[in-house]
Specification:
The complex is a heterodimer of chains A (about 200) and B (about 550). Chain A is built from 6 helices and no strands. By secondary structure, chain A is mainly α. Chain A starts with 19 loop residues before the first helix and ends with a helix. Chain B has about 550 residues and is mainly α. Chain B is built from 15 helices and no strands. The chains are: A mainly alpha (about 200), B mainly alpha (about 550). At the A-B interface, α1 and α5 of A face α5, α6, α7 and α15 of B.
């Protein structure tokens, strides 16, 4: 429509705007951070306020190995996204599947820890304030890991079918942002639950 | 300017059967249709919650009245508050943001049209869940048929022991679900504004409406999420036997208050900032001057968004926090008045020396300025911890926040509806009916909410279902109730105007107000694709540049 054309056109500088996928994921991460903040505040507020046992000091064991798994998956997902951007599809697929395996290992670790807490120590979400806040905070994080794993798996299936190419690398990077966020949250949860809260 | 709709010669468009039209509306991902759906949905809830308010006022008209039982009264004020905040206030403002932001920044749709539809239907499901409790909340317990815990739902009132049945669960789920919808919409608004602007639409050229909605959306991300988290905790308490707010097991009721008000106070700014946006678009057009102090307006909005995140505990001065905490929240509350004051002066500066046209949208804007100022003043009074301790939980507080939400938000929403109705429907709203609506609503508003301050000062607590005669509250309460009915009549006139003008109103044309933002450059109602070709802008008032090529704004900015 020529009527709307600018009477004083600017020098035709390139008009570039940020990628909407990345902006949206960043916004989602802000919102999610607020949710996690509230759960972290509740956890810290109730540290040592349980009326009955068991206490964190008695039952918690620091999951060093599984933490290393999750944190290193951040590196693999980053390298995977980079490989895809350079159209190295094979390297992408390998690193991507490795990310899924590392994330899955972490979830196995969480499951094992919960199993031990429930069956050996009788700690459930309704036992005491520690149980309520612990299962809520760690569970919220585990829920996010699971959601991330499902999305990673969907991409992995498409990649195995040969449908993920360099054109999709921006979308894959958006998913990688989410995965980095899940890892960053674990750093906070780990610090709060296994270091400060003992 | 002629209409820029694309017509294909030789193609006859047949009338569609109504079921096809309905199907199109239900499955739509068009930001304009979703905007209209949001607005209609919100207006429906405005009427429902308004009727609840009228029943409350009938009950309080006389001392020892027996119009409704105490239990029903509790349910009424809970439903009224929850509905007005979550299912009227937020949806109607999201509706306008949805409709206007892409048009104003020269985009063809929101960044994520399907997320947009999903968010709307989530919000709609939330409203449905809240009112479904009227039918479904009896469950096996036979206790309560609507939530009755108040809109803050303080612990331990929401514990299983004190709220048996499912009414509180429906309340929780309604807020949880609509909260997800709000977060989805906020993400969409941010991505749209940052990533979908037309060429030349730099951030410092965006219409203020887009700027203010950007800030609002950012606040939704940070403020609504804590509510979502708190509702999840409440559900864990109620269904999984958790102890977050269970004082018997060492849990804290005050923690819920903090979590609720960390959401609750920014929420009122989430509601009012889009109204500031309406002011910033409407006042310049009817003053025939560009907005005064554009950069300062943006800075003040960011400042409000920032400071309002740290004022929440002024809702809790009577809880027994330390004197340092009280002082901190008193100071921050006073501080948030400064950028708000800057805004009021900027609107006055815009009107100063302008050729003011007293059309209906402008009348509502002028009333907004006066009323929001007074609401701000009582806000500063209540922001002082010493004063608030005397008047907290009294009708003074009720009068204060209704002054901001009715005198502020509702008046601004009416201004926006009168201003953009021609763009949305292609027809003008009737000016005479509009003036009747304005004056009746103004009189009713002031009769109700000016006088409501006084029973509060005389010691009348909020949320009581009746009161003793002989305390000096009788006449005031009667007049307050009469004012409520005058407002109801004004709303009826407004609804009549909306319907009559839709069929009989004068044709609006593209640009009935001689305005300056991009939405007025296209036909009314706009075509599905908005802009046949994406516009290029060189200043904050692209249509001014177009209409006055000899003296464009771009020369001065």
């Amino acid at each position: 429509m020529s009527a709307m054309a600018n009477p004083f056109p600017e020098a035709s500088a390139a008009w570039s705007l940020p990628d909407r996928g990345k902006v949206a994921m960043a916004s989602l991460i802000v919102a999610e951070s607020a949710i996690f903040t509230i759960f972290v505040v509740a956890y810290l507020f109730y540290v040592g306020k349980s009326i009955t046992g068991p206490t964190p000091r008695e039952v918690l064991e620091t999951p060093i190995f599984y933490t290393i798994c999750l944190l290193s998956s951040s590196l693999t997902v980053h390298l995977a996204a980079k490989s895809l951007a350079r159209d190295r599809v094979g390297a992408f697929l390998g690193l991507w599947v490795l990310t899924v395996v590392l994330g899955g290992t972490f979830m196995y670790g969480t499951g094992q820890e919960w199993h031990r807490l429930i069956y050996q120590h009788g700690l459930t979400i309704s036992t005491n304030l520690f149980g309520t806040t612990y299962y809520s905070l760690v569970g919220l994080h585990a829920f996010h890991v699971t959601a991330g794993l499902i999305m990673l798996l969907i991409v992995a299936i498409f990649a195995l079918a040969g449908r993920v190419r360099a054109q999709q690398s921006r979308r894959v990077e958006v998913l990688a942002m989410y995965w980095h966020f899940v890892d960053a949250v674990w750093v906070v949860v780990f610090t709060v639950v296994y270091v400060l809260g003992r | 300017m002629s209409s820029n709709a694309i017509t294909i010669p030789g193609v006859q468009i047949n009338e569609k059967p109504w079921v096809d039209t309905l199907h199109e509306w239900v499955t739509t991902v068009d930001h304009k249709r979703l905007g209209v759906l949001y607005i209609l949905y919100a207006l429906l809830f405005l009427v429902i919650a308004g009727v609840e308010a009228l029943i409350i006022r009938i009950q309080l008209m006389f001392p020892h009245n027996h119009f409704v039982s105490p239990e029903v009264f509790n349910r009424l004020f809970t439903l009224h508050g929850t509905t007005m905040v979550f299912f009227m206030g937020m949806p109607i403002l999201f509706g306008f943001a949805n409709y206007l932001v892409p048009l104003m920044i020269g985009a063809r749709d929101m960044a994520f049209p399907r997320l947009n539809a999903f968010s709307f239907w989530l919000s709609a499901l939330g409203g449905f869940l809240l009112y479904f409790s009227l039918v479904g909340a009896n469950g096996l317990y036979g206790a309560g048929n609507a939530p009755d815990v108040g809109w803050w739902a303080y612990a331990p009132l929401t514990a299983r022991a004190f709220s048996p049945g499912h009414s509180t669960d429906y309340w929780t789920l309604a807020l949880l679900v609509s909260g997800f919808g709000s977060i989805g919409t906020a993400i969409n608004i941010i991505a749209t504004i940052l990533c979908m602007r037309c060429p030349g639409m730099k951030l410092n050229r965006m219409p203020l409406l887009a700027w203010l909605n950007l800030v609002m959306a950012g606040m939704v991300l940070i403020a609504v999420s804590p509510l979502t988290a708190a509702q999840a905790m409440l559900l864990i308490d109620r269904y999984l036997g958790g102890h977050f707010f269970d004082t018997q097991a060492g849990g804290s009721a005050v923690l819920w208050m903090h979590f609720f008000w960390i959401f609750g106070h920014p929420e009122v700014y989430i509601l009012i900032i889009p109204c500031f946006a309406f002011m910033s678009e409407i006042i310049p057009v009817f003053s025939r001057k560009p907005i005064f102090g554009y950069p300062v307006m943006v800075a003040a909005t960011l400042c409000i968004g920032f400071v309002s995140m740290s004022v929440w505990a002024h809702h809790m001065f009577s809880v027994g926090m330390s004197s340092y905490t009280n002082s901190f929240f008193t100071i921050t509350t006073m501080a948030v008045g400064v950028p708000t004051g800057i805004k009021i002066f900027n609107w006055l500066g815009t009107m100063w020396g302008g050729r003011i046209q007293f059309k209906v949208p402008m009348l509502f804007c002028i009333a907004f300025l006066f009323q929001f100022l007074i609401a701000g003043l009582t806000g500063v009074m209540l922001g002082s911890a010493a004063f608030a301790s005397q008047l907290t939980l009294s009708y003074f507080v009720v009068a204060h926040f209704h002054y901001t939400l009715v005198g502020g938000v509702v008046f601004a929403v009416f201004a926006a509806i009168y201003y953009w109705y021609p763009k949305i429907t292609g027809r003008m709203l009737n000016e005479t009916l509009g003036k009747w609506h304005f004056w009746l609503f103004l009189i009713g508003f002031h009769l109700t909410f000016d006088l409501m301050h006084f029973p509060g000062l005389l010691g009348m607590p909020r949320r009581i279902y009746t009161y003793e005669p002989g305390r000096g509250w009788n006449t005031l309460n009667l007049l307050v109730s009469i004012g409520a009915f005058i407002q109801a009549i004004a709303i009826l006139l407004f609804v009549a105007n909306l319907i009559i003008s839709y069929f009989k109103g004068a044709k609006a044309g593209n640009d009935p107000w001689d305005a300056w933002t991009l939405e007025w450059s296209i036909s009314s109602p706009p075509p599905a694709y908005n802009f046949a070709s994406i516009p290029v802008v060189a200043s904050r008032r692209p249509l001014w540049d177009l209409k006055h090529p000899e003296d464009p704004d771009s020369r001065y900015e």
